[in-house]
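OP here, attaching both records as promised.
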Amino acid sequence: MKKIFNRLFCLLGIAGLCLSSVSCATEKLPPAKFSGASPLAWSQRLADSEMARRGDSLAWKPGGKAKWDYTTGLFTLALLKLNEQTHNPHDLKFAEDTMGSFIKPDGGINGYKPQDESLDNLAPGRTVLSLWRITGDERYHSAATLLRKQFDTQPRTGDGGFWHKQRYPHQMWLDGLYMAEPFYAEYAKLFDEPADFNDVAKQIRLADEHTYNPRTGLFYHGWDESKSQPWADRITGTSSNFWGRAIGWYAMAMVDVLDYFPTNHPARPQIIATFQKLCAGVVKYQDPRTGLWWQVVDQGQRKGNYLEATASGMFVYAMAKGINHGYLPRSYEPAVLKGYRGIIEHLIRDDGNGRWSLTHCCSVAGLGYGRDGSFEYYVHEPVVDNDLKGIGPFILAGSEVQKSTDPPHGATQQIP
């Protein structure tokens, strides 16, 4: 009996409570497993599967169909982040071959149209900056500078918020916070443009002020300053529902912006507070059975709603990273682990021959041009497998969950 108690106390890591004179050896904690594999292994499985499915279809070719697109930027950025932990040359090569194909010798970008004034076009700039740091190729530096110039002319609302696109006048969408702000902040840090951090902080603050609903603790998809859009409330200007992926974009925007934001900047605490407020709202609506989140977050039991992959991956990624960086307390860890396990157990499909798929991804959703922001609209948009807006966050989530579940460097558990 003494040996049994001794083993229990040692496994719990309670120092000094070994009840026999048998000395305690040390052994590294095993990595956490989810359906038999570590989070990093799952990230690599989905990464390898998607690279095999896509081939070179995402790369620019004269007369080809590939576009300068935020989804390609998200996927290739996720590959580069994964490579930081796995050092898999295939991930790096795919990202470089794909994004590098768009960059001209003079730093121009095939398919980039500044006249669209679209924040979506700026998101791939993060991969461009990463490739510049990795390769030192000045084409990437020039291309990033070209993208950065768009902020100087981007149309704004009366209080300074970026329009989502030229074709969406007077509108801020939560999607746009992820498309613009992390790139904006990273460029500011790399090239010493400290005033830009004030603008980044302003965009995050305005999104909070205009889209937060204190009753639910959630954020509306969009806000129309003019209150003239068919989807906009005539008093508040907000859209009418809480779309999961929109909130996920906002969550990822904040947690990624903080990677670059000066630690002594006066707005940093406010960004962290807004991120904490978002996470506090989101966890209230986590499905208790599966750990996932619904397409329309607060209406889980309504007919037609479904558990959606892209938002679930985004929430897991953002909260896991928040824990790892100290923005969230460890009390969020059960929700993160339940969400991550839920994705693997309910949304990952084994296609055989070493291929895996991520299912139940909302293909696309927006506002305006016939899209009224209603519940019925969101739940009737196409649902697909392996959308890059889901694959990218899933890869990123695995990277952060791995860090969260791994012991600190050199940590050990005691065994008899």
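Record two, same layout:
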Amino acid sequence: MKKNEKIKFRIDYEVLNNYVEAINSTNKSMSQIKKDMEKQTKSIKKGLKSINIMTDIITNFKIEYPNEKIKINTDIIKQIMKVNNGMLTTRMIEPLNISRLYLSTMQNNNIIEKISRGIYIFPSTFEDSYFSFQQKYRKAIFSHMNALYFYGMTEEFPYNYTVTVPQSYHVDTVNEKSNVFYVSNDIYELGVVEVETPNGNKVRAYDKERCICDIIRSKGRMDSEQVKKTIKWYIQSHDKNIAKLSQYSKKMGINEKVMEMVGEAYN
């Protein structure tokens, strides 16, 4: 979006930001989100509240300006993209009842570009491949050395994505584009956090302690020297949490192995 471009139907930044965070932080399907919104009660969750606020604002715009539906919808799309670092997924407009036809029209007018199925950017935006990948594969959590790369704890640049998914997740294309680890549901979300990619977008990844457990648990598929070096870096870091590491390793059934390798790293 051009810096001086006029936006008639402007929405408060905080409202937009809360909405974008609510959409990006959930891996629920849009159909499930809509069902949750229909079932809402007085104890409505924060994420759904952010979505409701956006829908109410847009609805009021359309009531007040019934002949400017096109301008309202395109202005909303541009503002969402600006807050989301120049990127947009079709998930971001579905709860707002904005037709995907507007995206096609904006694409035809060279306002936005389609970079993948359901993902668009402004022409001036540099594509964040990590963000795009996770938007396409919502169940994929960046893990192992790929997640540790975000924390600056590996010398290896992740030329291929490394992700963890539930055992029940069967999408063939994710295997073609990444190294995939399948885990049981009881540890799938253990240690999940939001981290920033090098381009400033938020993605879901495992925290440091979970990553240390993962690289030890899967060391047969890893570079053994890099694993040892990374564990040593973790031990030397100021924000390590050995209690959490022990808790995770017990939950994953590898406590003895993890404590052994961590103990060696202290020597």
